[in-house]
C-alpha cells in the first residue's frame, strides 16, 4: 500500500468531507446544549456526567473518522478499508451511544412517533438480531453492493439503514429505557452477543474463502470509477480521468484484489471478536454485580423480617 498517500490528488472535499464534519459539529453542540442547559425540559432530566460527555465526544470523533475522514475515501478504493469502516461504525460507534446518551434522552427519543415504531422491533430481540445480520449479508452480496455503490442516494440510504439497525440490535442489551424486570437476563445477553457473531460469520467466510474477487467496484476500472463518484466531486474525478492519471485501485496499492478482499474479511472478523470480547466482559461484570446486589438485598430483607418477628414475639410474651 505504498501509494495510499496519493489520495491527496482527489482534493480536500473528498478527503475530509467538510459537510459531514459540519453535521457532526452541529449534532455535538445540540447534544451538549440539551444535556447541560435544557435537560430540565425533559421528564426525569439530569445534568450530563463527565464520563458521558467524554464518551460522547470520543464517539463523535470516531463517527467522523469512520465516515468523513480519508478512511471513507479509502473505503471506496480498497475493500479492506470498507470492512474496517463497517466494523468500527456498526459494531463500536453504534453501541457506544448507549454509554453516553442519558436515559431520559433515550426515553424521549424512542417515544417520538416514527422512531417509536422503529424501536418496537428492538423489543423483540430475535427480530432485531435477524434484521441487522440479514441486511448486512444482503448488502454484501456482490450484485447488491456493486449496484448500491454506483448510486449515491441508494448507498447513503443503505449505510444509514445499517447503522440504525445496528443501534436497534444492541438495544436489548444496553437500553436504559425499559424497566429492569423487562431486561434480558445476563446469560441471555451473553448468548445474544454470541448470536450476533455467529450470524456475521457466513458473510465473512464468503469474503475470506472466495477463490476470486467478488466486487466489480473494487476491481474493474469503469465500475470502480463510477463508485468513486460517491465521494469525489465530479469535476475533480473527470479531470483526473481526462489526464489519464488513474484508471483503477491498482494506482494506489500493489495488493492484489483477492488479497485485499480476504484482508477485509479478516479485519471484520478480528475486530468483531475484539469489540464483542469487551462487551461480553462488561455484560458479565454487570450481571455479577447485579446478582451480588440482589443477594445482599434479599439478605437485608430477611434480616429485617427476622428482627421484626423477634420484636413482635417480645411484645406478646
Automatic annotation (TrEMBL):
Membrane disposition: Multi-pass membrane protein
Keyword tRNA-binding among UniProt keywords: no
Matches recorded under InterPro entries: Caa3-assmbl_CtaG, Caa3_assmbl_CtaG-rel
Top-level taxon: Bacteria
Transmembrane spans: 12-34, 55-78, 84-106, 126-145, 157-174, 186-209, 266-285
Presence of keyword Transmembrane: yes
Localization, UniProt: Cell membrane
Pfam families: Caa3_CtaG (PF09678)
Keywords linked to the UniProt accession: Cell membrane, Membrane, Transmembrane, Transmembrane helix
The protein, known as: Cytochrome c oxidase assembly factor CtaG
Gene this protein is translated from: ctaG
